């Protein structure tokens, strides 16, 4: 294709190139078939691929070497033709009834995907080929159409305007792009587009109002509270009354596309002189109400759900903007969300989460504006959901909803649930917990960052405290056969909740709030304590939230000396986990017989359980627990890397080791056992995490003044570590490049800690020196089967020369050598082994 584009760019100067125009004309024919892909024709995806190939060739440095403006015009002309024909393919079918009823779901999905790929191509051409003329001409034509045609005419020929609006939305990232001087080069074009959006909103407003119950619109747009929701038995009747004039299906599509434009051009729209804030807000809220339309055609549902999602996303954008200071805005949004929640039969989880995020934002804005009536209205929503959450968490009879009150069943019936869902309570707990987390996220999003003094009120602390209490009861008292699915979200709840607690403790409103926070922190601790006792397996789902909680306790302790018990909670949890890791490793050494693969293992019972454990022994017997080793090593590695914030009046940053009252450094020895248990197992992911932990520990031993490295890592252990590494590097199958770097990092850490010993031990193991000191020889004899292991290594090295081995040893034992050089040395050594082994086969 590069060659063809080069021929095309020079065709103006060469009359012999007329056939090149005919060839590109044939390319254009692929976009000329009537109908829509893939229902009417199945060639447009090929046409799109041809266009992409032409585009890529057009911007390549080798092909796009035009000599004059005429040559450049030849390339632009072909892309303009593609733009025009692709634009026609962009239109929705004229017969939407056929689209929704005759087309199957797969065809609709393929067409929407094809449409999105087309829009990406429009963006690329607009950005890199500067074909602004086509876009400007099309935009001006749309502006003229909107201004000069009647509402009926605009709606009758809606496909063209919708297609162009969708394209304008797709190219927005380049239209409003700011250069290094913070100037928007295409600002005038952005204003034209924004003006079109506002004019289009004005045209659509009449149809939305006509299609919906007028009383509903007026009610949601006034500054008053909505009436209480009708009982469930009357809600269906209310729905039928609402649908006085079924809206034409194109209204859903048009509103969704216009909302996309608002989302992408909002930063420009909000600065427009012609902006009517109230009309903009009404359109967005009315679009949300449109999504509650009840239809017998299930194929409409995807468009209605997408309309709901984009409406709520745009509401969030507005609540974060300067428009949020409007008293009317807060009331209108609150009333509309209440209406939606009380009168929508089924709500998907994404919609519910988006609504909850908006409620959190509204709660913060209302508190700031001292709008008590609005606050009460929002609290009614939250506390009804909280009561439902409590009953779901604390009822123990069944996993279905038969033992719950009718009001709880009514709320749960709004949420979509799979027909074959067995643990329905757990499923609904997951939905409600996720929505409340979104509410907290929305609350703190209005004024980020939270650490800069956001005001946390009693209601937020009360909801958070009760949530944690109900979850504790659910996890510790309600019988579950396994860890519930909603526990995954417990970590997210802590991520949003603990910073709120920090803010409350740093800026307390009163003693009651402080008491609630402290009680909640202890509630989290007891929840984790119980889970660690009940679920014996070390699971990342459990360890990640515990790690976050420990770090938060330790970090905030530096600023909260009055809450000294927090540090004890962190220490207790960490000790509990270390006990489990210790039991995991020790049990593995105890259950193994005295014979392994027909040979005596040579380690006494006492030697097997003393930390640090033998890396050689663990490389054989630890393969059945590699998953637990990997998870645990990753957990410990992240914890020992954690540093607390600087304490007030004290510039020293504390590490997690300050949590452990461990003068004998038993925890450090346990960590070494864990790290070196996985450095030579077959699972590369386990090897990577264990080497990472080993490097962290060796760095601590190198630079920590109050620890004697020889008391922790003796000569015997150092011998075993080097034997394990060489057994991997010399086995003939090179590790992945990422692991080679990790092994190089491990060698660097060992060289920085024990450079001389490393040189001697590696030289002896590789056969470069034939004897070592009597002291080292004695240590070596204490390693069972050490002679056999060294023979295995030297047999693998037999095809390499002593000089090559010596070069390798010198490079990996030299302290302060760069990681790149050590990595290259290991890679070269492995390649020599492989080449010479195969050369002598």
TrEMBL record:
Residues 225-246 are annotated as: Disordered. InterPro entries: ARM-like. It comes from the Eukaryota. This is Exportin-4. The lineage of its organism: Eukaryota, Metazoa, Spiralia, Lophotrochozoa, Platyhelminthes.
